[in-house]
Structures
1.
Amino acid sequence: MSGLLNPPRYFQDVDFQPHCQRSASWLELFYDLVYVATLIQLGNFLGDHHSVAGVSQFLILVTAIWWAWSGMAFFQNRFVVDDLPHRILTFIQISAIAIMGLSLSKAFGELSSQFTISYIVTRLVLVSMYVRVMFSVPESRQFTGRYAAGFTLGASFWALSLFLPEGYQWLCWLVGISVELAVPKLPGVRAYRIKWAVDNHHIMERFGIFIIIVMGESFIKFLSVTAGYEVGAEQLSYGGAGLVVVFVLWWLYFSDLPGASLNTASDRRAIAWLYGHLPLTVSLVAAGVSAKKLFLVDVDAHSLALPEDYRLLYISSLVLYFLSLVIIDIGLKFGRGHRYRSARLTGNLLASVLLALVGLVSDEFTGANMVRIVAAIMLAQLCYRIYLDNRFKVKNLSPCQT
């Protein structure tokens, strides 16, 4: 591998074929750090805007943030590069993501242009990375050229939004993201995606790391809100139930990933796995925010009846979590047979129905009692999953197997 100051020769040494068991690089992990702060700002935005309009705006913002991260994750998955220009471009994108995070609180108001320009920078940096590969590796031009063109077109709609009146810019944001989402389906792109397939182990690890970051943000929110309160029996019971919910959320996503493999043999299944992580991200951020709000209402206001918006936000986020697991499971191979997959599907759907019922009948519950009931449902689902894992034997299935 050549030195940092000679990128063309470095590119000649890059292996574009699928790797086996390649792990995230230190640069990728450093890149992820900026999303810790950004996700905290996303949670704060939702906490301050939990009306229907506010939740809709939150969904647009989290989609933009998630898609910015995903685009970079897939580039780094296919093109292994860590030379000086690439590091500089990565640092520029980190700065742009940081400014996006600082702009989130007023992204639909006076900071909408700042948020927009920051997003455009992230896409242009990614386009620059694809262009570097396109000119350095001639055999990649049909693939990288289409990605560069598609992302440039998407960024142009974001640029167009700068000329719209405040309050309407988000329309162009959605069009721009939709254009980028369509890039993998462009004529000729799918064939090259199959030729240069993703590294299963690496991409699953990258998305797992991102979900850990999102869970960490929610975990911190729940812990920070309890700071300064005397820990008594009631607080231990409430906090313990909340932590049980968080632990089960982690367990259900991560416990069997080592024995699972991304189903790249089916394009639709792989896309289901990918896009299933967007509602999963939404659910985890919303769960952390709503748990914090429920605790504050229950402890400070001593109110028997929970505010409807907090109650529905908490329950809806958990229902969305289980539905997201259903979508993600579509794109995975578990090596345990179809009966195991069907049993998982049944368990996740049943948990979502039970949680929805709790949301419907919990209008007279205290926050503590509702969280305890939710924790009991989550523990039941965990026990069911452990039972399934023990009943169905794992076949030898390498994460690199497609």
2.
Amino acid sequence: MTQNQIIVALDVGTTKICAIVGDLDSDGNIRVLGMGQSPSEGLRKGVVVDLDATTRDIRAAVTAASGATGVEINSSVVGVTGEHVSSMNSRAVTSITHANREISEHDVQKVLENARSTPVPSGREVIHVLPRGFSVDGQEGVRRPVGMSGCRLEVDTHVITGSSSFLQNVLKCVEHAGLTVDSMVLEPVASCEAVLTPAEKELGVVMIDIGGGTTDVAVVIDGAIAHTSVIPVGGNHVTNDLTVGLKTSRTEAERLKIECGCALASLVAVNDLLNVPSVEGGATRPMTRQAVADIIEPRMQELYHLVREELRRHGFQDTLTSAVLTGGGSLLHGAPELAQEILELPTRVGRPRNLGALELESPVYATGIGLLYFAAARQARERQEVSPQHFLARAFDQLRGWFSRLFAG
């Protein structure tokens, strides 16, 4: 293990903060060593509202991860999300001036830097510039231009920006918890790498990560991200509805949602009874499971209709072949069936690929595992900078595709 590189992913979410520790060997293989997590009490809809609470919760998760793995954690790749995130597609160009007109890795980085220079409104900063495809001398559809001959290299990119102040608040919390931020990654981008298959990415898929405070949406077509957005509705809204509708405590509402909830009332037996405690801890009241589903279903319908409208507004309603749900909200019984009904797309629940830790093969940890892939790609780039060999290309092949191969930001 002495030759392996420690990598750490930090998922700063609305309901939980999770730190996952892995190691990366010289062939680009990732192995999960362990994790730690803490309830998140300082964020609302993905945005920091209490610096001290968020710092405390990050420190607790990192301490737990360090204790579970025996690894001293000093830095991490950090996931971010929130309503402040926005995206756009843009195009950039550079000239190839070498005598032999052969495109180099430097040329690719130069055109990506030109794309990164796209003007953004005051108070916002670029989080990522994701290549969607290249063009060499007008020939579209080029994926790997290095080594090709040409005079003009163009790139279509997906540019993701966030509020500078919101991003800085996350940075402050992580640093106050004693960590250095290696880089910030938009959470739906990380989740895509954890749960989508290469075939889904090529054919056109919408990834819907249902978190506690927000739902992250990413559209992937032809192997590259074409659209990202954050919808301010998540699992906590379902819990709130149950708290009010059942006149019970939030704790009991959350328990009932997880253990007995259903997103589609037609899937529930009519006479299936539950006992619902009152708010003040008095006598329980009998209630049908279908009555609970009748409270949940309208909120989940709202969420999926918002996703459908997002896809329609950006012209993707007729270009996708499937949908993948992930995040804690995807575990709600009936969630994929209702999504398939409203989105009119075959829908499955996406789980992270096995990295040697069975307990993390849950949609709940999709973002964290995706961040670990990004951390591995970052280490691969750093090794390439000090090595004359082609380690980066081999590592990127191990990490399977666009996310690890093309990330810039």
